[in-house]
Amino acid sequence: MPAEFKTFEHDVLVIGAGGAGLRAAIEASAAGVKVGCVCKSLLGKAHTVMAEGGVAAAMANVDDRDSWRVHFADTMRGGQYLNNPRMAELHAKEAPDRVRELEAWGAVFDRTQDGQILQRNFGGHRYPRLAHVGDRTGLEMIRTLQDHAIHQGIEFHMECTVFKLLKDGERICGAFGYDRERGRFMLFKANAVVLATGGFGRAFKITSNSWEYTGDGTGLAYDAGAELLDMEFVQFHPTGMVWPPSVRGILVTEGVRGEGGVLRNSEGRRFMFDDIPDNYKSSTSDNEEEGWRYTQGDKNARRPPELLTRDHVARCINREVKAGRGSPHGGVFLDIAWIKEKIPNAQEHIRKKLPSMYHQFKELAGIDITTTPMEVGPTTHYAMGGVRVDGDTQMSCVPGLFAAGECGAGLHGANRLGGNSLSDLLVFGKRAGEFAAQYAKKNPPAKVRDADVDAAAREALAPIERQSSNGGGEGPYQMQYELQEFMQDLVGIVRVEADMKRALEKIYALNGRVKNVVVQGNREYNPGWHTAIDLKNLMYVSEAVTRAAIERKESRGAQFREDYPEKSAEWGKYNLVLKKQADGSMGLTKVPRIEPTSEQNQIIEEMK
Length: 608
Ligand SMILES: Cc1cc2nc3c(=O)[nH]c(=O)nc-3n(C[C@H](O)[C@H](O)[C@H](O)COP(=O)(O)OP(=O)(O)OC[C@H]3O[C@@H](n4cnc5c(N)ncnc54)[C@H](O)[C@@H]3O)c2cc1C
Fold this sequence. Notes:
Layout: E1 5-9, E2 12-15, H1 19-30, E3 35-38, E4 55-56, H2 68-78, H3 85-104, E5 119-120, E6 130-131, H4 137-150, E7 155-157, E8 160-168, E9 171-179, E10 185-189, E11 192-195, H5 216-223, E12 228-229, E13 234-241, H6 255-258, E14 262-264, H7 278-281, H8 288-295, H9 310-322, E15 332-335, H10 346-353, H11 355-365, E16 374-383, E17 386-388, E18 401-403, E19 408-409, H12 420-442, H13 450-470, H14 476-490, H15 497-514, H16 527-551, E20 574-580, E21 586-592, H17 598-606
Parallel strand pairs: 1-10, 2-3, 2-11, 3-7, 11-18, 17-19
Antiparallel strand pairs: 4-6, 5-6, 8-9, 9-10, 12-17, 12-20, 13-16, 14-15, 15-16, 20-21
Bound molecules: flavin-adenine dinucleotide.
């Protein structure tokens, strides 16, 4: 019997209601097309709401030496020159306008004395650049975008998961999903689809990402024939909570270090001074006093080594722990309480500047960060890799399929600078919405084939139906747990070929089991079924990460290979692209990186 479903028709369908999805939906709607927006959880609960530190934009409100050129150069250096330079330029140029636009829509940023948007220091940014609202920037951003979006006539479909993209020949024609409460199928017809589904931290065991981040957009796009780019570059944020076990991985914002927090090992030593990479030596302080002055806004001081890029700080922490100089629960100490030696009202100051961190540690770990150091360690945080898109329009190689935000790729190269994600969402979310609307208007209505919808429904229902046919079988949770465990251990922060090859074998073996996963119960209120469906995307992204990480035989940005610890000039010329082959296997190609223009090269050289 053909599957039952409800049909919704939109010109542009946006999948995801985080910062990128909302910004895309607003822009598409402003272009006069009919827009639908789907999200897995309730509106307002997307990952973006968790962002703490701020949004990077070279507005030069705090330091007038800042400009788009410096931001561009910082982003390229952070990404170790594998970024798409066109995207890095557009991002640096357009972020200030996108932030001011948010302010005009009602976002209340922290202020400078003279009433401008306040900007704070962050790792890898040469000047104070992050517009922020205490340490709750994402909350303010999502609240503002949401308020704006709901007055635009966008149709929202909440608590609904898309599990298949539909195509009419080569071009996109819609998506198929289900509502999570009752398990009823939903068909979305659309001329253009924008993927804004965030990252895939849930492929790893220790992560700052919430349950929603199973790489759906990345997996769906791959399945539909799009290319994936830079998948080997997974960012391990240096500071996640390590204790108690139930909260392991939850993020401790870089803002703590931006406000003067320091990292110490069990011997009380500020170990970050021991290892400052050559290309950052000239811009990093070599003594504690200068580092402190930098965090307090002294324009002549250089940044403390705690504010070096995330990949480097994470590896230094890893090294201390491995060398037996870690904290009692396998991390190191992050101390902001020490600033009482420097400023009189330190406790009040910390509570004001870092209210969420204060509450997070008080509630979850019973620690008062105004008096006691925190224990922190690396946590899987951000996917630099994702869907390969055109830098200007955000369209993938599948006509009508766009991607923006964390599920897109290109801007960040081998490593993302903190704060550059929120600005990425705004700049490229807007662009994706604009060009998706343009595409939807320009092209005649695409046709959905009944047979494709039926096949998608059958695939989704198979785990439930297997239960009735054989009564037993393996459930999805154990598989998900195993995947996260071996991805963490074998393809984590320090990588070696033999380990990763073992991971790949495990992925192949698990793929066979996933195809036969069995779910108990029925479609209604069934988290086991949701997990079974998520597994397909988790498997795609895990294979892509592992294959690309094996292929890149060097250490660069977020990828650290113990067997190839140096950066290779030769590998610096290439990005890695993965694409589904006709026989269903995953093809991997080395493609020459996009060369910066001569003007861009000049900026990079000037700022080195
Ligand atoms: C704790 C934390 C703090 C951070 N702090 C900062 C910071 O200070 N500055 C910064 O720049 N970055 C920060 N980041 C990173 C940044 O928050 C994220 O990269 C960014 O918010 C991702 O936004 P997005 O719009 O791409 O996706 P998200 O905000 O992750 O939204 C994804 C949306 O897609 C939906 N979705 C997913 N799959 C499906 C599906 N199959 N069907 C339907 N809907 C689906 C989800 O429900 C959700 O609505 C932080 C991240 C974390 C975890």
